[in-house]
Write a structure and sequence with these properties.
Layout lengths: L12 H52 L45 H6 L19 H7 L32 E6 L9 H4 L25 E5 L22 E3 L12 E2 L2 E2 L4 E4 L5 E4 L10 E6 L4 E5 L4 H6 L12 H4 L12
Parallel strand pairs: 1-3
Antiparallel strand pairs: 1-2, 2-8, 4-5, 6-7, 8-9
């Protein structure tokens, strides 16, 4: 006999499985959209960072009437070209600090800038090593300002297998454009002092020298996985093919630590050896973890997303200051920059 109440319904196993399957399909459909939205947000932040770097360079040039050098000084015990032969060959005059440090006041990082000891005999990265005994100097090298970090960069910000284990230098997602010439010219003047781009060792470009036009000359580009030894990108440090200085000799988004593809030589590279004796192919390429290309800041502070498929001639043209179409050797492209245009502070 019925008690007058309706029996309680329940899902059968088949119904439950169908519901789970439907939920799974919906998640599968929505997940790419969510991931795309997140990447769009990260890319937008990266573009904003690049914009800030472009404006910082423009403001620096407005105050100083010149751009910062890619690296402040010459190498120790090396004379490749003027003006290095005019620079005292002492550990107080030569070092490895990058020009990014000079931009700190224009990125609301005045405190870090003051701690770096600019112009003093214990300035960071001078070969004399005096700065290593100053906690505030070391703190700059171990800092990682947000302006130098692309949210899409998967690196942890620590320079992997750094040769000096007493320091923990931090890396950046961005590097200066030094020109067309890359690892093919390893150890020679065309990379350090006579490259085609805006940022070299010691030399401070003036905007009047950029006859290709500021809007057509790339100043800063992305670097992916700058924590890797063969792709190291310490933002306070300037070093050809690696820290803070890259070239367009290899294509955009050339894989880090690579010179071969499909068993054949594909990219130009030189060899970097870490403190454990492990060797890496260093190709000095710009790269990004954004899909399909990378973000660059130009001389007029506008920002562009360059695609992987960019023509090599066009890509190289962006890495020149006075070469017209971007073709030609570094010495041909920059012959007007020699002589009285060199400047050492």
């Amino acid at each position: 006999m019925s008690n007058g109440k309706n029996p309680r319904g329940a899902f059968t196993l088949v119904e439950l499985l169908v519901v789970i399957a439907i939920i799974g399909i919906l998640v599968a459909l929505l997940l790419p959209a969510v991931q795309a939205a997140r990447e769009a947000a990260r890319r937008s932040q990266c573009i904003n960072n690049m914009k800030q770097l472009g404006l910082a360079l423009a403001n620096y040039e407005s105050v100083r009437n010149e751009l910062p050098p890619g690296r402040l000084t010459c190498e120790m015990d090396s004379v490749y070209a003027p003006p290095c032969d005019e620079v005292p060959n002492s550990t107080d005059e030569r070092g490895l600090m990058s020009g990014f440090v000079l931009l700190l006041p224009y990125l609301e990082e005045q405190v870090l800038y003051d701690q770096a000891g600019i112009g003093q005999t214990d300035m960071i990265w001078l070969y004399n090593g005096n700065w290593r005994n100053r906690a505030e100097r070391v703190a700059v090298v171990e800092a990682r300002p947000q302006a130098f970090i692309c949210p899409s960069d998967s690196g942890d910000g620590l320079a992997e297998e750094y040769t000096d284990e007493t320091l923990i230098p931090r890396t950046s997602s961005y590097a200066f454009v030094s020109g067309i010439n890359g690892p093919r010219y390893e150890g020679s003047a065309p990379v350090k002092h006579f490259n085609t781009g805006p940022f070299l060792y010691l030399l401070r470009r003036k905007t009047r020298q950029i006859t290709d036009g500021l809007s057509k000359t790339a100043f800063v580009g992305e670097v992916m996985q700058g924590n890797l030894s063969g792709n190291r990108n310490i933002w306070t440090h300037g070093f050809r093919h690696l820290d803070s200085l890259r070239s367009t000799e290899n294509p955009l988004n050339t894989p880090p630590n690579s010179s071969w593809r499909n068993g054949l030589p594909q990219y130009t590279a030189t060899i970097f050896q870490d403190n454990n004796g492990k060797k890496y192919d260093v190709n000095g390429a710009f790269g990004s973890e954004h899909t399909g290309g990378g973000v660059f800041a130009f001389g007029d502070a506008h920002v562009e997303f360059l695609t992987d498929s960019i023509d090599s001639v066009a890509y190289n043209a962006y890495a020149t200051t006075n070469c017209g179409d971007g073709e030609g050797t570094a010495l041909e492209c920059n012959k007007s920059l020699r002589g009285t245009d060199w400047k050492w502070d």
